[in-house]
Design a protein that fits this description.
heterodimer, A: mainly alpha, B: MetI-like fold, elongated
Amino acid sequence: MHLGKFILIRATQIVVSFFIILTLLFVLFRVAPGDPASMVIDPQMTPEDVEVTRALFGLDKPLYQQYLICLKNFVKGEFGSSFYYGKPVIEIIGEKLPNTILLFTTSIILSALAGISWGKVIAWRRGSLLDSSVTVIGLVSHTLFLPWIALLMVWVFAYWMNLFPLSGMITPELWLNPETGITMKVLDVLHHMVLPLSVLFTIHFGGFMLIMRSSMMETLKEDYIVTARAKGLTERQIRERHAAKNAALPVVTTLGLSLAFSINGGAITETIFSWPGIGRELVFAVSNNDYPLAQIAFLLIAALVLVANLVVDVLYAYLDPRIKY
Amino acid sequence: MQEYREKERDKEWLDYRKGREVKTGLGGRWGRWATTLRGHWDIFKRNRLGLFGLVLLIIFAAMALTSYIPPLIDTMYDPMTGVDPDILWTQGPTKAHWLGTDFIGRDILSQLLVGARIAFLVGITAAFMAVAIGTSVGLISGYLGKRVDMVLMRVADIVMVLPGLLLILILSAVIGKLSVWNLVIIIGLLRWASVARVIRSQTLSLRERPYVQAAIISGASKGRIIFRHIGPNVLPLSFLYMTFGVTTAILVEAALAFLGFGDPGTVSWGMMLQWVWKTGNMFRAPYWLLPPGICISLITLSFYLIGRALDEVINPRLRQR
């Protein structure tokens, strides 16, 4: 039951981390200059009215009580209403979350797989023309400015060549038509997904590939590779079975560490392509001073990253039997 | 035999250094510094990509320096306030405006040059801050160990999983638009954790070295051992992480400006991209869309390539045989 215990410990850590982030956010919003109620308080209100409004929002209570109320509401799942939409935050987020997960996980998995397979091939052919050219491609991909490459792709593939839609996730006419079958709907979403997916893929591929390449080169120096050669295994067997499997482990670790960073890129991509996800919603909420929505969207993204980290840890433990917890 | 070999090696090393010292023409401490630098440069220059990065960096530095010239020629070349009275809307390259003008007739080339200045400013100061905090935390955490270590590393764990850009977005919602300096401080506060991790593990191995034990026995204080004895030995690593940190800092600033949360008092490359995007000119004005993006991508590439080459200087294991 080593793994079970490990998951339990990590899960507790994650919950603690999450509440620390929640507290930080609470403090941030309270110490910030400007009253949180200033959004609703009218300059023409009498001081008595202002007091009533403040009491309505619970702002007349001492800070620690406000904090406890905030915690209580959070645990109970009452996240308040969005200023902008006038709907409960939870509804808005619930709608957007699956879209984000769909786009983000697909892109991460695809780019990690591509990065691993290219990384192992070029490390195997170290010093060749293929190695140097793919390495340069990887370096460029790793340092490209995401919004710019996104705009370029929209320009070339959507505007110029007219291959893909400019933005959005669905074609409304198609979805409103009751005769449209499920296959058409899926294809429609996929058609909209190609461009944002390619942008995220382009950005993430390089990093994974470079790590796989250096990790593979380290692995190839190991003794067991020499042993495999001595046994008379084919080159392909050595590369795929003996080297690549071990070399891929650091990629998994980096995957966990870089998640927080790549979700930033996810939010930018969603904004550019008007992909209805929580990253775009967060950017939107911040522009509209929609604090409740911004707060919850951020917390949710943080939670997402934390959970994804846990998944990566478990995956790592599963992939590498040498790891003992 | 073993002893003889070691002596022989030492002698070779001394000869090597002597030869170098004569060449640099400097004596004493400076001579030694020059020797070490020469040795490192010899390794660095074998990395062609690193050299390419260095060339790019020099070009961008030149851009940052020339950015002072256009406003002197004519006030209409001022990147922020200069408006060409003859041009009302964005226009392609002309003789007066080599890269064209933006939506209110400001010169794109002068904006591009100033952007280099902002990128350097934000990138280097933010990375320096992140590395300074990270190095100190890593050293303290690694040397003191126990509870201090545990607390600091848990904090680092949390900082590491925070989606930085989104947190900065939230901050700018609460505080209002962030100035460049506030942004630098926030990036510094958000990006130190990974540096702290690396420096900590390095410190863990360094503190077992004989010279540290000797320092402890001779009664050196903890602070002195940490910052005077161990500190200098992790500095190359910190410097390496600084070059990578510059890359992230520039990208974060640019992304923030692109989303419309940049410092309204400055012109940065991200801001230029935001203008071309928000004014709906991205399909019409390639002369406006392409340059800022190319610059951001190339400046980050340049720092990244230099970082990789420095990595080879510091970690001999990475060098190609």
